From TrEMBL:
InterPro entries: H+-coupled_symporters, MFS, MFS_dom, MFS_trans_sf, Sugar_transporter_CS
Organism: Paracoccus cavernae
Main localisation: membrane
Name of the molecule in the record: MFS transporter
Protein family (similarity comment): Belongs to the major facilitator superfamily. Metabolite:H+ Symporter (MHS) family (TC 2.A.1.6) family.
Domain Major facilitator superfamily (MFS) profile: 10-427
Annotated localization: Cell membrane
PANTHER family: ALPHA-KETOGLUTARATE PERMEASE
Regions that span the bilayer: 12-39, 51-71, 83-103, 109-136, 148-172, 184-201, 236-259, 271-294, 301-322, 334-360, 381-399, 405-422
Entries under Pfam families matching the protein: MFS_1
Membrane topology qualifier: Multi-pass membrane protein
Length: 433
């Protein structure tokens, strides 16, 4: 099989696998308002929503642990087998959620079971993004690595978009009673067939050339995580800080935003999900451009520029959103909301289309999976998965719709400082062996 054919297969498998995993994972976030009613005792709307987002956040606790475990297996036994297993576990856990009893049926057992299955999902997700990015980066040619590796966040965004459209369709076709009774279960049922397709495609791949070279030279690490902390700790800290903007922005802008628009600004649920769709389309439409630009200008330049834009524009854009009086989907006010969110989508693509390649190039092949997985999942666990919960809680305390903007701006500042300390990567950059 030619190198071009191997690259095409690796690219397709990475995209599809990431799509499947993040469709499964995102459905919960988009259905949080319904899940709050189904799984938690009757309280006021904000408390129920906070409980649903608390489960969302708690499922992230397992992700740094998952990053260590998946990183160990990926660096020691190979990328291919690790990725096939992660998508199988994710699909199985998501499928189980469709059959969980409600609070009305099982009492406190219901949210406990929900938390357990979400933690299994979090464990599976902790191996996906880092593994798929490492896999594709190790197949891609040096001068086009940014473009090809951007397929991984593109698959992530496509999974989110599909989940958003599916949930929007449910809101459009079903009544609130039908959604709360059985409608919310439908997207979780799709996990099994989607997961089967993902596993089938990944099992047909060959291991990456870089990992094969390690095996042939007997250089595969025995304890990759220990080696990571001993030899690559500075890179690990740079990667953690460099991921903060992506972690917070991803969950606030691409997951939490429909709930924010509906709860804080009074936008109708269908209109809010359409807003999310527009944001994701802008993100997905820009991500390959940003990946290609990083091959020309360098990862560091793109990531620093993105951080500056978020620091300068986030609060003003949220102020614009909070000042809009929503008067319907056919109104000028709604068009303004769509324009703001489309701009956020393009800004997020600057980060998302570049970050995966940046992280792959920070670490040598021996510990690449471990370094990427641990830094990325730790940032998402401590700051990304908690973002919707913190934004909802702080917004309630200070009575301001700008709470998410302050959080996002702080993350952008830390990311800027972290990226400044890292070496640049760009056209022709080689992966460190």
């Amino acid at each position: 099989m030619s190198k071009d054919e191997l690259l095409r297969r690796a690219a397709f498998a990475s995209f599809i696998g990431t799509f499947v995993e993040w469709f499964d994972y995102a459905v919960y976030g988009f259905l949080a308002a319904v899940i709050a009613v189904v799984f938690f005792p009757a309280t006021d709307a904000r408390s129920g929503l906070m409980a649903a987002y608390a489960v969302f956040a708690l499922s992230f606790i397992i992700r740094p642990i998952g990053g260590v475990i998946w990183g160990h297996f990926g660096d020691k036994f190979g990328r291919k087998a690790t990725l096939s297993l992660s998508i199988f576990i994710m699909s199985a856990a998501t499928f189980v959620i469709a059959f969980l009893p409600s609070y009305e049926t099982a009492g406190m057992l219901a949210p406990i079971l929900l938390l357990l299955t979400r933690m299994v999902q979090g464990f599976a997700a902790s191996g996906e993004f880092a593994g798929a990015a490492s896999f594709l980066a190790e197949y891609a040619p040096d001068n086009r690595r940014g473009f090809f590796t951007s397929l991984v966040p593109a698959g992530e965004a496509a999974g989110l978009l599909a989940a958003s459209l599916f949930v929007a369709l449910l809101y459009a076709l079903l009544s609130d009673a039908q959604l709360q009774s059985w409608g919310w279960r439908l997207p979780f049922l799709m996990a099994f067939p989607l997961g089967f397709v993902g596993v089938f495609i990944r099992r047909r791949l060959e291991e990456t050339p870089h990992f094969q070279a390690l095996e042939q030279e007997n250089h595969v690490p025995t304890t990759p995580v220990k080696e990571l902390f001993k030899n690559n700790f500075p890179q690990l800290m740079m990667a953690f800080g460099g991921t903060l903007l992506n972690a917070v922005g991803f969950y606030l802008i691409l997951i939490y935003m429909p709930t924010y628009l509906a709860g804080e600004l009074g936008v109708g649920k269908e209109a809010a999900f359409l807003c999310s769709t527009v944001t994701l389309v802008a993100y997905l439409g820009s991500i390959f451009i940003m990946g290609a630009l990083s091959d020309k200008l360098g990862r560091k330049v793109i990531l620093l520029l993105c951080s500056v834009l978020f620091v300068v524009l986030t609060v003003p854009l949220f102020m614009v959103l909070s000042s809009i009086t929503y008067t319907g989907m056919a109104s000028t006010s709604y068009l303004m909301i769509l324009m703001v969110l489309a701009l956020f989508g393009v800004m997020m693509a600057m980060n998302g289309g570049t970050l995966a390649t940046f992280l792959c190039e920070l670490f040598p092949t021996r510990v690449r999976f471990s370094g990427f997985a641990l830094s990325y999942n730790s940032a998402n666990a401590f700051f990304g998965g908690t973002a919707p919960l913190i934004a909802t809680w702080v917004g309630g305390i200070i009575g301001s719709a700008l709470a998410p903007a302050y959080f996002l701006t702080g993350a952008a500042i830390i990311t800027f400082l972290s990226i400044m300390m890292a070496r640049a990567g760009g056209a022709g950059s080689k992966l460190e062996e």
